[in-house]
Design goal:
By secondary structure, the chain is of the alpha/beta class. It has 9 helices and 6 strands, in the order E-H-H-H-H-H-E-H-E-H-E-H-E-E-H. It folds into 2 domains: about 10-25 and about 95-220, 3-Layer(aba) Sandwich (Rossmann fold); about 25-90, DNA polymerase, domain 1. Helix content is about 45%, strand content about 10%. Strand 4, helix 8 (about 175-185) and strand 5 form a beta-alpha-beta unit.
Length: about 230
């Protein structure tokens, strides 16, 4: 059983995308490694963590600063983008438990959304690859907010679109920045770390899950449901 349960009934769900639904954080790490190796460097400690979960316009400024290179954030973005999409064709995959959890949420009648720091065109392409577009009621992307994660704006907007209080929403995240955004919005957060986020700070979360198939997630979903 989880150590914490939602204070209010869960009426809707919001998912992050990268590193949670798909393994794109792994692909991004490969692309970043290529970029820094091409400059005779190694990835600085803390760079992936500092960038993860943030909008591109925020994260590539961090990359420039931490690498100490002359390249502009826009140039770093464009080069990483090219490397990333080449590698994506080889390495892209779903994270464990995605379809099983979506099926479970649909059995419970819980509407689902995606709330990602990535651009809408990118999100659409990823969802279409796995025939996932119609499984979400709506999506919010970097273009829909002024403030990126860890600011709570995107999850406050998701709760508003769902027509519920943030405290009635379950958020799934994989990163420290995303977890902070969901928690600051007032949502109940389930954090699902992967190989590139296991060292993140997840203290604001309601549960740190092993995968999206973690049985403790079902306990959270059932917490306020009547048993026969």
């Amino acid at each position: 059983m989880p150590t914490e349960l939602p204070a209010e009934p869960i009426l809707a769900v919001a998912f992050d995308l990268d590193g949670l639904i798909v393994n794109t954080e792994h692909v991004f790490h490969l692309a970043m490694a290529e970029l820094v190796e091409a400059r005779g460097m190694a990835i600085p400690n803390g760079l992936p963590r500092a960038m993860m979960g943030k909008r591109p316009q925020d994260s590539y400024g961090i990359m420039k600063q931490m690498l100490g290179v002359e390249d502009s954030p826009e140039a770093l973005h464009d080069e990483t983008h090219d490397r990333f999409f080449r590698l994506l064709e080889i390495h892209l995959d779903l994270m464990p438990g995605v379809f099983e959890l979506l099926d479970q949420l649909e059995r419970f009648g819980l509407p689902k959304a995606v709330a990602t720091s990535s651009p809408r065109k990118y999100l659409s392409g990823i969802l279409e690859r796995f025939d996932l577009t119609d499984r979400f009621a709506f999506s919010l992307t970097a273009e829909d907010v002024v403030n990126g994660k860890p600011h709570p704006e995107i999850y406050l907007a998701a709760a508003d679109r769902h027509g519920i209080a943030p405290q009635q929403m379950l958020v799934f995240e994989d990163s420290e920045n995303g977890t902070r955004a969901g928690s600051s919005a007032g949502a109940f957060v389930v954090s699902v770390p992967h190989d590139h986020s296991r060292d993140h700070e997840f203290s604001p979360t309601g549960l740190v899950a092993d995968t999206l198939s973690d049985p403790r997630i079902a306990s959270i979903l059932n917490a306020h449901r009547e048993t026969p």
